Amino acid sequence: MRYTLTTIFLFCFAGLYAQVNTTEVEEFIKEYVKEHRADETKIRAILNEAQFQQEIIDKISRPAEGTMTWERYRKIFVTEERTQAGLEFWKKYQKEVRTVSEQTGVNEEIILGIIGVETYFGRIMGTYRVLDALYTLGFGYPRRASFFKSELAKFLELTSKEKLDPLAIKGSYAGAMGFSQFMPSSYLAYAKSFKDDGSADLISDPADAIASVANYLKVHRWQQGEPVATKATFTRKVTNLNKQVIKPKNKLSDYTALGIKPAANHIPGSTPATLVILDNESDKEHWYGFYNFYVITRYNRSPMYAMAVYQLAEAMKSKKDW
Length: 322
What we know:
alpha+beta, Helicase, Ruva Protein, domain 3, five-stranded antiparallel sheet, globular, Murein transglycosylase, MltB-like, SLT_2
């Protein structure tokens, strides 16, 4: 069978837009306009500019946390280069970091550890238009369509509230943005201005990002002065140890009674703890995670993410010389 160039073009064009359920897009517009009393023409014009990107579907289908060992993951986020970049960032914004830490009770190094893992201290904030990411995932990724449609609605609300250009903001393939990589719903819920003047700019103001990260952890019940994690070693063979949940449900003494020794021996046995097991290429690492470790996983639910934040934070803290 022969195809003309026009036929081939039309076939490809139809295939591109078949990736998005246009009926759902139309329903979304109607619902958003009704709920927010928004200008339908304006909302429709914004979404008409959104572009489906198959690359986004491909990436979210194989996130690093699900495909990497801890050994490989750590080599990306806990490096000498990233540690030095963090120290430079910390020194530049030391006043802001100290002030925010004193106000919230969240450790300075942990605030910076999150910004360091998320965006390399602002160096890598994402290359995808947030609009495209949320549009693609909301209408072309059925597995989590409901979540990303909700985030798209929050993004439209956010850009209207903060007078941001919805066509210009770039972020991750999942739609997270700014120094702190907040999703739109988190931006609306937890973003905080360092100067406490209302509007928070997480896209271009590091001070606001610092304040917002700390606020997020504080709201999720960060425990001031309490430990985050410590290495665990086995003094005897332990069998039938089931995978532990990240939120501590046992006491440290429950584990030490089994012969699992914490590297930090000053932590009271009554401290809530869980055992974190990280897979390497040829072995496993065992750590104690405390309640603050769990709080970090409220930012990203991966134990590897929380451990990377903790270890990068500790690396910066150990080399801080001012």
